[in-house]
Specification:
The chain has six domains: 44 residues, no CATH class; 227 residues, D-amino Acid Aminotransferase, Chain A, domain 1 (2-Layer Sandwich); 105 residues, Beta Barrel (OB fold (Dihydrolipoamide Acetyltransferase, E2P)), CATH 2.40.50.140; 73 residues, Orthogonal Bundle (DNA polymerase, domain 1); 76 residues, 5' to 3' exonuclease, C-terminal subdomain (DNA polymerase, domain 1), CATH 1.10.150; 73 residues, BRCT domain (Rossmann fold). The chain is 34% helix and 22% strand. It contains 24 helices and 26 strands. Strands 3-13-12-4-11 form a five-stranded mixed beta sheet. Helix 1 packs antiparallel against helix 2 and helix 12 crosses helix 13.
């Protein structure tokens, strides 16, 4: 395994240097020699790791992540913070004690030795299919020696060292990622698997769910983990323990938390005896064969110095506690979010108060208690950015502070950042910091001004951090963004609740006709599958305002829409029909290509089979998959690619 990993990494690094950085770190002869050595080792072991040059996986770009129900629910674990309780829980049984990694739990399925599916934990019952992203995990085997059906579970994580490297490449402090767990979750769920690959996600197996035909594991979880390791998986670090040494091993883990490169928020203890653990059953929330251990949060006492108020794009004014610096979990912290007015009032915060602070999950600084409770801090009456009125709103019993001024600079900056974002107008290189300078200088007062920056060339070139080269790049990026789509424009407007997916649905339903889009009424919008009452109301209210329509008109004067390939609603042979795609494909290169073909003919593709589904496309029409089973239950027709291709070629459905 070590040889496999080393050869794969060496060749990946050589290819990256050659193709991406225009430099050579080894000769072609040496590369070919190592390549042949790796290919022979892969053939001998039956293991092919992700990123291996012998089996490169093409990147996929998805429009949405399909949902899928877990055959066996992924339950959360009961928890304790008492190490002695672990000893009592284990009794006279043997157990396995391991890190509880803090990332994204994923179930992997292999068939015939190949990775065929990866599904996130989701809510435990239903997760999102992230197979394309999983294929890019740095240490995950795409091929394994076991050629039966195998399902395992593990945690996708981003190591602290990789997290720091990623953040080091981001100049704008406000755009740096907050912690590895959030970055990992967002990375795995990316629709573009190339972006997942760039985030250096890794996978660590922690349990075997099913194997058929089942090897002889001698009724031992430890044997299962060793089997997974023999298949090329990296497993969580674990120790076999008994009631006598469980607390001693907990101490070992606690002493190694600081040096652990993998994010962890505790430990997991499970019975080694598979049959005994299964006989205990489960509660509605937790399995009884395992338990989580959480360390007592390290707390420090310090003095509260001030409350800082930050205004967000939505107008929410967030309170942040500023206190004398303290050491927590190996780092120095001096600020923590208070989240809302209700929490601030409950803690009765005041200047000079003695407070205790901790790191939630050993990561996020939080206030634990106010020992003094002077209550001298009060919410500001005005926005700290624009000076406009600040108002308190009650939302489901929780009090929040908002800026009431529409012209607030903070709102503008965040709104413009959204407008130029990748999924919106996609003006590359226009950072929040640059936008702040342009807005402060008066060059950008509305979105359309971003396309008129050439009027201020002399001034922008002289700005700190700009110059002629940066200005030229900025103008080129803005000009490139002038050619766009109705979906991008709608999403860029930042209408509450109208995300990229909803924008696409609305534009498609309106035939990508902008006049129809902005004039869509509630009835039209709520008739679109996936658009509810809340989104429809926000949409209609936005375009009901003259100022908004005028601002959009000025944007339209600066851009033009590219031609859409798909048929407008009502214009294709598949109009009104809903499809679900599952299984491997033979005629189309990937599911996106098949989905594009369906949508081009007016059809719709969803991720799960429901009573609204007309056809399930699966080349294995007799498969026992969950989707085939659901289709049979609902009377949904199951067709294969050949049938669909015939419709596409003839341009007509069978009678």
């Amino acid at each position: 395994m070590e040889k496999l990993k080393n050869l794969t990494e060496q060749l990946k690094e050589a290819a990256r240097a050659y193709y991406d950085e225009d430099r050579e770190i080894m000769s072609n002869l040496e590369y070919d020699r190592l390549y042949d050595e790796l290919a022979a080792l892969e053939k001998e072991s039956g293991i092919v790791l992700a990123g291996s040059p012998t089996s490169r996986v093409g990147y996929e770009v998805l429009s949405e992540l399909p949902k899928e129900a877990h055959a066996v629910p992924l339950l959360s674990l009961d928890k304790t913070k008492d190490a002695a309780a672990l000893r009592d829980w284990l009794g006279d049984k043997k157990g396995l004690l391991s890190w509880k990694l803090d990332g994204l739990t994923i179930a992997l399925t292999y068939s015939g030795g190949s990775l065929v599916k990866a599904v996130t934990r989701g809510n435990g019952q239903i997760g999102e299919v992230v197979t394309a992203g999983a294929r890019t995990f740095g240490n995950l085997p795409l091929q394994i020696p076991f050629h039966g059906d195998l399902t395992l579970r593990g945690e996708a994580v981003i190591r602290y060292s990789d997290f720091e490297t990623i953040n080091a490449g981001i100049e704008d402090v406000s755009l740096k990622y907050k912690n590895p767990r959030n970055l990992c979750s967002g990375s795995v769920r990316q629709l573009n698997s190339r972006e997942t690959a760039e985030r250096r996600v890794r996978f660590y197996a922690f349990s075997l769910a099913e194997a058929s035909p089942a090897p002889d594991f001698r009724n031992s979880r430890e044997a299962q983990l060793k089997f997974l390791a023999s298949q090329g998986f990296q497993t969580v670090e674990f120790f076999a323990v008994t009631g006598e040494d469980a607390e001693e091993r907990v101490r070992w883990f606690s002493e190694h938390v600081e040096g652990n490169d993998l994010p962890s928020d505790g430990l997991v203890l499970l019975y080694d005896d598979i049959a005994y653990g299964a006989s205990l059953g489960k509660t509605s929330k937790f399995p009884r064969d395992s338990i989580a251990f959480k360390w007592e949060d390290e707390q420090r006492e310090t003095m509260l110095l001030d409350i800082e108020w930050n205004t967000s794009r939505t107008g929410l004014i967030n309170p942040v506690a500023i206190f004398e610096p303290v050491e927590l979990e190996g780092t120095t912290v001096s600020r923590a979010s208070v989240h809302n007015i209700s929490i601030m009032e409950e803690l009765q915060l005041g200047k000079g108060d003695r407070i205790t602070v901790y790191k939630a999950n050993m990561i996020i600084p939080q206030l634990a208690e106010n020992l003094t409770r002077s209550g001298t801090f009060a919410p500001p009456e005005t926005c700290p950015v624009c000076g406009g009125d600040a108002v308190i709103r009650d939302e489901s019993g929780v009090r929040f502070l908002y800026c009431a001024g529409d012209a607030c600079l903070a709102k503008q900056i965040k709104s413009f950042t959204h407008f130029v974002g990748r999924d919106a107008m996609n003006i590359d290189g226009l950072s929040e910091a640059t936008l702040e300078k342009l807005i402060a200088a008066g060059f950008v007062r509305e979105a359309a001004d971003i396309f008129r920056l050439d009027r201020h060339q002399a001034e922008i070139v002289e700005m700190e951090g700009m110059g002629k080269r940066s200005y030229a790049k900025l103008i080129a990026a803005a000009d490139k963004a002038r050619t766009t789509t109705q979906t991008r424009l709608l999403y860029s407007l930042g209408i509450p609740g109208v995300g990229h997916s909803a924008s696409k649905l609305v534009c498609r339903a309106c035939g990508n006709d902008w006049e129809r889009v902005q004039n869509a009424d509630r009835e039209t919008l709520t008739a679109i599958d996936g658009v509810g009452e809340v989104i429809a109301e926000a949409f209609v209210n936005y375009f009901a305002k003259t100022d908004n329509r005028d601002a959009v008109a000025r944007i339209l004067a600066e851009i033009h829409f590219e031609e859409q390939q798909e048929s407008p609603a009502g214009g294709g042979i598949l109009d009104g029909l809903t499809f679900v795609i599952t299984g491997s494909l033979e005629h189309y290169p990937n599911r996106n290509a098949l989905k594009d073909s369906i949508e081009a003919m007016g059809g719709k593709v969803t991720g799960s089979v429901t009573s609204n589904t007309n056809y399930l496309i699966n080349n294995d029409r007799l498969s026992a998959s969950a989707k085939n089973k659901k289709a049979r239950e609902l009377g949904v027709a199951v067709i294969d690619e050949a049938q669909f291709s015939a419709w596409a070629e003839t341009g007509e459905l069978p009678a």
